[in-house]
C-alpha cells in the first residue's frame, strides 16, 4: 500500500465519482480506477459500491476512511517536520468562512501569513450550508479549520475558541406597526413574517431556539444565505429580522428594537477537528489568528 493509493481513495470517497476524482487529481480516470482496484485487492475487500450514477462506500470503505485520512495526515506531519528543520513551511490549509462576516480581519491576516510563509497556499471555502455545514465538513476532513457561528457549546468532535460575540436586535421598516415600540416580547412577533438565514446558519439556529423556548411559532417567508443582504429585504418591507449591528451600514428607513424577554447573542468561534492531527500549515494559520485576535471581542456595531 502506498500513500498514492490512499490519496486516490480519499478523492473518490470525497467526490463520489471516479471521474470527478480524476479531475481533482489531474490524472486520467483509468488510472484512478486501476489504483483503487489495486488497493481493494491488497486489502481483500471492496471499498466502493459502483452504481450507474454514483459511487458509495461499502462498510469496509467507511471503516477504512478515517484511517486513510489519519495516515495521510501523519505523512504530512512528517513532511512538515523536515521542512521546519530547513526553516521553511509549505503546503495548504483549507479554511471554511462565513458569507459577509469578517470580524477577524481575514484579508490582512492572510497577507501577513503569505509574507511569513510564502510557500503556504490558503484555500477559502464559503459556507454554502451555513455553520452546520462547515462543522460537518470539518468532521469529514474537507476543511482544516472553520469559522462557525453556531450558538451554545462546541459541536461534538470539534475544538473551538471564542473570537467574538454580539447582541442581536430586531430590525423593522419605519412603516411597520412595531416601529417606535422600543422593546418587544417574542410573543408579540409571532404574527409577522420574517427575513432570516436558511436552516443550519448561526443566526437562524439562535433565533429558532429562542422562539421554541418561548413557545411561539413564527414564519420565515424569505431566506437569504448572505446575511449581510438581509437588511435590504427588511427595508423593502418583505419581513422583519434579527441582525447584529455590525452587519448594518445604513439605518435609513429602519427602526431598531430590543427583545425584552430573551437574550439573543450571536457568537463566532474558530474550530478544528478534535479527532484529527493539526498540520503545521493549519497551526501557522491558527497561531497568527491568535496573535491578531488574542481575546474574544464584543461587537457593538457601527
Describe the structure concisely for a colleague.
This protein has 302 residues and is α/β, with parallel strands linked by helices. It is built from 9 helices and 13 strands.
- Fraction in beta strands: 15-25%
Q: Which homologous superfamily in CATH is the superfamily of one domain? A: Periplasmic binding protein-like II
Radius of gyration: 23 Å
Determine the N-to-C terminus distance. Answer: 57 Å
Order of helices and strands: HHHEEHEHEHEEEEHEHEEEHE
- Tell me what the CATH architecture of one domain is: 3-Layer(aba) Sandwich
The number of helices is 9
Average of the residue pLDDT scores: 90
Query: Unreliable runs, pLDDT <50, ≥5 residues?
Result: none
**Top CATH class of one domain:** Alpha Beta
What this model shows, in words?
The structure is a single chain. The protein is an alpha/beta fold and 302 residues long. Among the domains are: 1-88, Arc Repressor Mutant, subunit A; 164-265, D-Maltodextrin-Binding Protein, domain 2, CATH 3.40.190. 38% of the residues lie in helices and 25% in strands. Strand 1 and strand 2 form a beta hairpin. Helix 1 crosses helix 2 (18-25) and helix 1 (3-15) packs across helix 3. The radius of gyration is 23 Å and the shape is elongated. The model has no long low-confidence stretch (mean pLDDT 90).
